[in-house]
Structure formats: C-alpha cells, structure tokens
C-alpha cells in the first residue's frame, strides 16, 4: 500500500517532475495512465506554433516554389496568387491539421510501442498506458517551442536549429546529410530518452534494452522521413 501511495502524483506534480524526475512520473502511469492533459498541451502548442509562425512558413513555401525547377514559370505565378487569396483559409486548415496530426500520431506511435513491447518483446501493457508514456515523453517539446519560436520570429526564418545541423550552411538544408545531422537534435534525443525510460518502467525491461528499442524506432523514423522528403522534393 505504501508503494502505491508513493507513486500517486497529481497532474500538476507530473508537469514539473517530467523535467526533473521523469522516473517518478512514469512509475505513476502504471496505476493512473492519464494522457489527456499532456496531449492537450501539445495540441495547444502545435496550434500556437502554426498561428505565430504562419507568415514565416508561408514565405518559406513561396521561396521553394520560386526556386523549383519542376514547376513551369506560368504555374508559379498562379500558385503564388492562390497563396495570397487563401491565406486565412490556409492558416485555419494548418491549425486544424495540427490538432488532427497530434491525436493521430500519438495514437499511432502508442500502438507501435505497445506492439513492440507486447508482441515482439513479450511484455505486458495496454494502449492507454503506452499513450500516456508517449504523451508525457513529448512534453520535452514545450521548452523546445519556448526557445525556438521566439528565435524563428526574431530571425524571420525557420532555419533555427538545436542539432548538428548548425555545422552546415542553410543552403544545404535539402541534402540527406543535413537532414541526418538535424535529426541529432537535443530536444529530439530528450524525447527519445524519456520514452525509453517510460518504456523500461512500464514493461520492467532494462534501460539498456529500452534505449536500444526506442532508439531503433527513432532511426527508422529518420530514414522513412528522409526518404519521403526526397520523394516529395522530386515533385517540387
């Protein structure tokens, strides 16, 4: 009984401890896997980012269209006019898309984590608990946004990095090496570490095994993202 009481934490306590003592937060998720509050925080963060960075993002998209060799010049003008006319609608769609993406991606990755832990590694947990682990691990995105959004607005450029991408020139941002370097990001690795800790605690696996599993999925995600980006880039 004493151990159970020890891991019972309020949501407010978890919001602080996820940054200072994440093991206590993940221990508490075994008895109370609450996922909604951190998910809503990320939703609000995503919507706020889409709103505040809308002008910078639109300028970046315009620059890519103008620089594209795959779009005929006459079509570029028509596309840019559509951008100008549909600015408000694009902003709304962007914010709605951010909400849908957060819930859908959280559910997908939680399911992937559960499949890995239950089916591949023979552990035992449930979807709600893995959703909570993923949501609370994603809270590392809060300080990331607090740092990056003001810097992006100050520079009027999306080229703000907390990764090995700072070793490259921004003109190389579409290259594979740049994208790999950008994946070695302080906040991304922080999220991976939090998910590994949560995975280890929930499934009672060793931390080494959990870091290897979550790290492997992160590497796979990087490879898939770069491949899709390269395919999309071929059409622009």
Describe the fold and architecture.
The protein is an all-alpha fold and 236 residues long. The chain has one domain. Helix content is 76%, strand content 0%.
Summarize, please.
The protein has helices at residues 2-6, 11-20, 22-29, 36-52, 54-67, 73-85, 87-120, 127-137, 141-155, 176-183, 186-203, 207-233. With 236 residues, it is mostly helical. Mean pLDDT is 89; it is low at 1-5.
SSE layout and pairing:
Elements: H1 2-6, H2 11-20, H3 22-29, H4 36-52, H5 54-67, H6 73-85, H7 87-120, H8 127-137, H9 141-155, H10 176-183, H11 186-203, H12 207-233
Helix content: over 70%
Report the portion of residues in β strands.
Answer: under 5%
Characterize the biggest β-sheet.
Answer: none
Q: Report the average pLDDT across residues.
A: 89
Termini gap: 61 Å
Radius of gyration: 20 Å
**What is the chain-wise order of helices and strands?**
HHHHHHHHHHHH
Number of domains: 1
Describe the global form: globular
Number of helical elements: 12
